[in-house]
Write a structure and sequence with these properties.
The protein has 17 helices and 18 strands. The longest helix has 20 residues. It folds into two domains: about 120 residues, Gyrase A, domain 2; about 260 residues, Alkaline Phosphatase, subunit A (3-Layer(aba) Sandwich), CATH 3.40.720.10. A seven-stranded mixed β-sheet has the order 2-18-9-1-8-6-7. A four-stranded antiparallel β-sheet has the order 12-13-15-14. α10 packs parallel to α12 and α11 runs antiparallel to α12. By secondary structure, it is of the alpha/beta class. The model has no long low-confidence stretch (mean pLDDT about 90).
């Protein structure tokens, strides 16, 4: 039981350090969107802080580099354009899973409001386990449209890009720009570009920016996160992608003097020591009415009502040294997933228990994913500073 107390102490320490009066990614996107006609309320202190770091021009490029945490930027060499233009550290939202953060960027709201928590999700109304970003059923890979699920049943908000009163350019890799989520995020009015390389992305953005007097531009770069997962956060593959980004920024800055570049990330990453397989000793599937969801360092368990006590005791006896186990009510009370109470949709999307890994391990709960996740080197979705702290870079 000592491990459980130590883990709860870690959570309390995190919650004491988590201050919604500090700047986070929701504040940042609200500030940017307001510059182009949105009308979000931002506290006077936050607006003052952001205006101190961001000199808004009529042309803005918002770059999101998936997986580029604050501490990764701090570790770069002194001649790095990223490090030299690092203004401060800000917080991302929890869980630190890409689907969760991208939904917060699209909606300018917290996960407690929009209810998208991670890579895996459960749609209670239709009893479907699914992947939000891929918009597919989890086990079969069938597109949710074929299961009579509308995108509005998953993403219960409007994309903020539809509300901006300026020209909009969006650039993403060709692999994802035509996905259902990307099309929802981009909205109806944006000009889009699918790129094959980071170099191409920056070159095209430069051309688009020059063509109009006022515009909002969004560039999403996803390769760094994938390579951190596969090769680790200090790998040569990760360094090569950072070099490509820096070269692109240097060229873009030289060619567009009237442009404000704001760069941040959705989360950081942590190098992993080992994997935990949920069903290695005990068969936990008997406890569940839906597949465990969210991600591999924050996991939501949908536990049958008559088995909740047994599940809790069995799970903590086996994994208590590695996790914090919270009820949905505790998550709501602690405001773990945002500074508002959980919306009905958010509550329905969470299981009865939520586990957070407290060390550099990750948990795989499904044999389908066991082989794919076995050799993961870098990971995220937890509560460590490395995962939750992201950079605010302004050029």
């Amino acid at each position: 039981m000592q491990n459980l107390k130590e883990n709860m102490d870690k959570l309390k320490m995190y919650l004491e350090n988590k201050n919604y009066n500090d700047i986070d990614i929701v504040d940042l996107v609200r500030y940017i969107y307001n510059n182009f006609g949105a009308n979000f309320q931002i506290s006077e202190n936050k607006e003052k802080t952001l205006s101190k770091y961001i000199n808004m021009n009529n042309k803005v490029l918002f770059v999101l580099v998936d997986g580029l945490g604050y501490y990764k930027v701090k570790s770069l060499s002194d001649n790095s354009i990223l490090k030299n233009n690092l203004k401060k550290d800000i917080s991302t939202v929890n869980p630190t899973s890409t689907a969760c953060v991208l939904s917060s960027i699209a909606s300018a709201s917290y996960p407690s409001e929009h209810g998208i928590f991670g890579w895996w999700q459960y749609l209670k109304d239709k009893n479907i386990n699914y992947c939000p970003l891929l918009f597919i059923e989890r086990k079969t890979g069938i597109n949710l449209k074929e299961k009579d699920v509308k995108i509005s049943e998953i993403f219960k908000f409007e994309s903020m890009l539809d509300k901006l009163n300026t020209n909009i350019n969006v650039s993403m890799s060709r692999e994802i720009i035509s996905s259902d989520f990307s099309k929802f995020f981009i909205g109806k009015n944006a000009t889009t570009h699918g790129y094959y390389s980071i170099k191409e992305a920056f070159l095209n953005m430069s051309k688009k920016i020059k063509n109009t007097e006022s515009n909002f531009n969004y560039l999403y770069i996803d390769g760094l996160d994938e390579n951190s997962h596969i090769y680790g956060t200090e790998s040569k593959q990760v360094k090569a992608i950072i070099n490509e980004i820096e070269e692109g920024l240097e060229n873009l800055k030289e060619e567009n003097k009237d442009l404000t570049i704001i760069l941040t990330s959705d989360h950081g990453q942590v190098d992993m020591a080992s994997m935990i397989y949920l069903n290695k000793i005990n068969d936990y599937t008997k406890y569940f009415y839906a597949l465990p969801s969210i991600d591999t360092r924050t996991i939501s368990f949908f536990v049958k009502e008559n088995m909740m006590s047994e599940f809790k005791d069995t799970f903590l006896n086996e994994f208590g040294k590695d996790v914090i186990l919270l009820t949905k009510e505790e998550v709501d009370r602690y405001r773990l997933f945002g500074n508002t109470k959980l919306s009905k949709y958010a509550k329905d999307s969470l299981g009865e228990y939520i586990a957070v890994i407290v060390n550099n391990k990750y948990m795989v709960c499904d044999k389908i994913n066991l082989e794919d996740k076995l050799y993961t080197k870098g990971n995220h979705s937890g509560l460590t500073k490395q995962e939750t702290t992201i950079p605010l870079i302004v050029i």
